[in-house]
């Protein structure tokens, strides 16, 4: 038996991240399109650029942040490394490298998905079709996730896949929250207005969390409730807390199950992050400043990834194993 | 019994020489040797079944299913990637849905012929790098081998397990109008194409189960297993459960799909040079647990890129120090380094003599008559008969640089003449073989197209030949160049029991 190649571990981790990233970006574009149907629409698309710190790159190629241009930039623009097509392409390239390891079905689905995506044009993004495009992306990514769950052999590789997906999802949920809370901060008279509530509504729906939220909060919808739900609520699979919890568990099982000594720093970071999220209440989060908390969470998630890379992905190779 | 009477009546009646009812009614082999029709005329029951079944299909359905089959190749990623400045384009090796069949009797000859060839090649390489008897005896000119660019002095005096150098060998074989097989070329370095043999069969079973239904076709799916066993044979002796890896130049290599395929079939890691390193004259791979010993490397990287310390210092694909480990016997390499001396087109001309020298046998499969232009006589003959000969550069692969005399224009012949006069040692010439044909699906009909055959032999302690091999088909009408870079495709190859 040979051990998992370090390069493969990195590839699996990133394969999962890129697919999750594409799915979550589709969710964010979907919800932003809902926001932008009002009079302030144009401004909203520019805010997506700020969210991903892409202003500079975007404006280098496009003079105006029109809805059509920003949407194209994030979906089909192969020149933008953070577009959906670039993410799926990177996922496919990793899958191609990993073909000796992953199931044929995983590879075939990603290959077809990428080729269909690559054949799409601006027409597929035009106003009434964007929602359909986003559904296509979400479905493609979820099909991948399902095939992976059902066919991927459960060895070390599986754990790296799970880690990649959890960490990326946690990061993206923080960004989804920022779309509404940080960038679309309503004026004081808007808070609690039907307009404000409908935006929170859309955020929840884009994370597929509306119904779960309603079960928890049968009436009312406040910023604190929704933010608390997406950040802290453990039973909701896209909440930051759930993702961090799952990543911590995965890494614990990986290290124990395969007697690996690496990953200690990453695990410590995850434990700290989990303890922090466990200790917060929604009201306290909003009061203390959601933006600062989201920044902190993002920085810690990056530190986890860096820890995994240095211990497992072949950047260091200190000891020879038997 | 009525059935017997019926059969008796059939054997007495004149046998049809081809199906004449349906799709194949207008099919003519145009004077060429036809692989399927020949078997049909011999009343081979499987060939009859294949052609009669094809005859009963309609063209539209056949074309639809062919298109589906090609789409499947794209979807499965059975592709090679062509890189342009702007884009990466996935291409498939065109697949023809009409199989090529080989009778059991023909296969027995081919199998024996390939095994003989591999035995001679291994004996030759071992001799050249050790005692050099064949050179001293003047059977093969010493300078032809020793000044060959594929000669590796690093291999001198090195003993390899079981005397095997060409663990994976591909023999390009054609059949002439006389019905005899001829060896056109040996591939003893890193022959490719075996993945298509297995994948074409899978594709055929999915797309045309009715065509193969209940026919006694020999399976090809155990190639990976046989290869893994042979690679186990060349591990350092002290290793009980060897770690085998496949070393690929990476995803940009046009044969990358095949590397994936083989790694999967064998269940071994597909590594790149950057995954390996040498410490204390042993090869290790970088894993999540640190460094792990590697015992056998099936390398799909050419000699000169294998180890920048020993060969091309600019190589980023190889592993520094690998050659040192190989010489110390701490790692097995397949194929061995330096096998290129045996598949050189100039050495090829001497192969019948090489077979006789080491094995004391006549070649089971003959060479195509070959004129060596480095020899005065060969050059004169070639220049005198340029319009009748096929002139091939000795160093090129992929069908490049070939001048087909009978098909060449006057200008092309003049260019060829000039090149021959300037660098005669660079060329050999052969008569133009009227390659056999196979019924092949074209845009409008089923038509004859020329084919060759590349059987694959795997050798560890002993030699095993995969039944059949890769049938390449020249899809352009009249063309005899089957290489994928020159409009060639492939067919499933059925060895009949």
Automatic annotation (TrEMBL), chain A:
Pfam families: Alpha-E (PF04168). Residues 4-313 form the DUF403 domain. This is Alpha-E domain-containing protein. It comes from Ferruginivarius sediminum.
TrEMBL record, chain B:
Residues 99-474 form the Circularly permuted ATP-grasp type domain. It comes from the Bacteria. InterPro entries: ATP-dep_Glu-Cys_Ligase-2, CP_ATPgrasp_2, UCP005522. Signal peptide: none annotated. This is Circularly permuted type 2 ATP-grasp protein. It comes from Ferruginivarius sediminum.
């Amino acid at each position: 038996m040979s051990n998992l190649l370090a390069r493969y571990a990195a590839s699996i981790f990133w394969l999962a991240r890129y697919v999750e990233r594409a799915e979550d970006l589709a969710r964010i574009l979907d919800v932003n399109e809902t926001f932008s149907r009002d009079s302030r629409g144009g401004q909203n698309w520019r805010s997506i650029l700020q969210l991903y710190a892409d202003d500079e790159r975007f404006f280098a190629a496009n003079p105006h942040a029109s809805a059509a241009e920003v949407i194209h930039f994030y979906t089909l623009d192969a020149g933008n490394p953070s577009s959906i097509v670039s993410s799926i392409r990177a996922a496919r390239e990793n899958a191609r490298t990993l073909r000796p390891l992953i199931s044929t079905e995983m590879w075939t689905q990603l290959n077809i998905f990428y080729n269909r995506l690559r054949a799409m044009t601006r027409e597929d993004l035009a106003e009434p079709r964007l929602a359909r495009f986003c559904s296509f992306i979400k479905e493609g990514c979820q099909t991948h996730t399902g095939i992976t769950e059902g066919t991927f052999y459960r060895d070390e590789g599986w754990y790296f896949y799970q880690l990649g997906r959890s960490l990326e999802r946690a990061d993206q949920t923080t960004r989804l929250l920022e779309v509404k809370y940080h960038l679309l901060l309503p004026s004081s008279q808007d808070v609690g207005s039907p307009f404000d509530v409908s935006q929170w509504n859309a955020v929840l729906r884009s994370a597929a969390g509306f119904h779960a939220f309603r079960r928890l909060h049968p009436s009312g919808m406040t910023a604190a409730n929704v933010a608390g739900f997406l950040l802290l609520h453990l039973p909701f699979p896209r909440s930051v807390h759930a993702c961090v919890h799952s990543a911590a568990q995965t890494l614990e099982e990986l290290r124990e199950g395969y007697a690996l000594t690496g990953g200690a720093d990453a695990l410590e970071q995850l434990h700290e992050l989990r303890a922090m999220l466990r200790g917060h209440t929604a009201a306290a989060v909003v009061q203390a400043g959601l933006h600062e908390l989201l920044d902190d969470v993002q920085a810690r998630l990056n530190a986890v990834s860096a820890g995994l890379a240095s211990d497992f992905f072949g950047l260091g190779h200190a000891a020879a194993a038997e | 019994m009525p059935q017997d009477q019926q059969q008796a009546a059939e054997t007495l009646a004149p046998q049809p020489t081809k199906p004449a009812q349906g799709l194949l009614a207008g099919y003519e082999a145009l004077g060429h040797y036809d692989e399927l029709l020949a078997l049909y005329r011999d009343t081979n029951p499987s060939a009859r079944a294949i052609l009669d079944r094809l005859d009963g299909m309609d063209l539209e359905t056949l074309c639809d299913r062919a298109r589906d089959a090609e789409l499947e190749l794209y979807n499965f990623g059975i592709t090679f990637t062509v890189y342009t400045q702007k884009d990466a384009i996935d291409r498939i090796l065109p697949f023809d849905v009409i199989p090529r069949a080989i009778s059991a009797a023909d296969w027995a000859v081919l199998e024996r012929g390939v095994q003989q060839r591999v035995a001679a090649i291994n004996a030759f390489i071992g001799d050249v790098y050790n005692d050099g008897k064949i050179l001293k005896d003047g059977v093969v000119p010493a300078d032809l081998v020793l000044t060959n660019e594929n000669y590796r002095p690093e291999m001198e005096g090195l003993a390899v397990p079981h005397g095997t150098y060409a663990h994976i060998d591909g023999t390009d074989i054609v059949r002439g109008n006389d019905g005899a097989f001829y060896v056109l070329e040996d591939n003893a370095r890193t022959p490719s194409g075996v993945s298509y043999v297995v994948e074409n069969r899978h594709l055929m079973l999915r797309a045309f189960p009715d065509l193969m239904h209940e026919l006694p076709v020999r399976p090809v799916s155990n190639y990976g297993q046989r290869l893994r066993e042979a690679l186990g044979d060349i591990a350092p002796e002290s290793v009980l459960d060897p770690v085998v890896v496949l070393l690929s130049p990476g995803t940009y290599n046009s044969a990358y799909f095949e590397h994936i395929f083989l790694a999967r079939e064998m269940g071994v890691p597909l590594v790149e040079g950057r995954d390996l390193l040498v410490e204390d004259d042993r090869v290790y791979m970088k894993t999540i647990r640190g460094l792990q010993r590697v015992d056998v490397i099936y390398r799909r990287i050419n000699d000169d890129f294998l180890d920048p310390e020993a060969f091309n210092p600019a190589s980023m694909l190889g592993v520094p120090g690998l050659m040192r480990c190989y010489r110390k016997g701490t790692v097995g390499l397949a194929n061995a380094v330096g096998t290129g001396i045996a598949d050189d087109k100039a050495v090829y001309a001497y192969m019948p003599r090489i077979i006789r020298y080491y094995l004391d046998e006549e070649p089971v499969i003959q060479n195509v008559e070959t004129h060596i232009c480095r020899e005065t006589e060969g050059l004169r003959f070639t220049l005198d008969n340029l319009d009748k000969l096929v002139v091939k550069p000795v160093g090129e692969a992929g069908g490049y640089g070939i001048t087909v005399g009978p098909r060449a224009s006057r200008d092309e012949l003049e260019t060829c003449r000039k090149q021959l006069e300037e660098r005669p040692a660079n060329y050999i010439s052969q008569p133009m073989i009227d390659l056999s044909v196979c019924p092949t699906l074209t845009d409008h009909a089923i038509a004859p197209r020329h084919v060759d055959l590349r059987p694959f032999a795997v050798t560890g302690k002993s030699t095993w030949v995969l039944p059949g091999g890769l049938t390449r088909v020249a899809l352009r009408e009249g063309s005899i160049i089957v290489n994928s870079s020159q409009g060639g495709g492939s067919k499933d190859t059925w060895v009949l029991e």
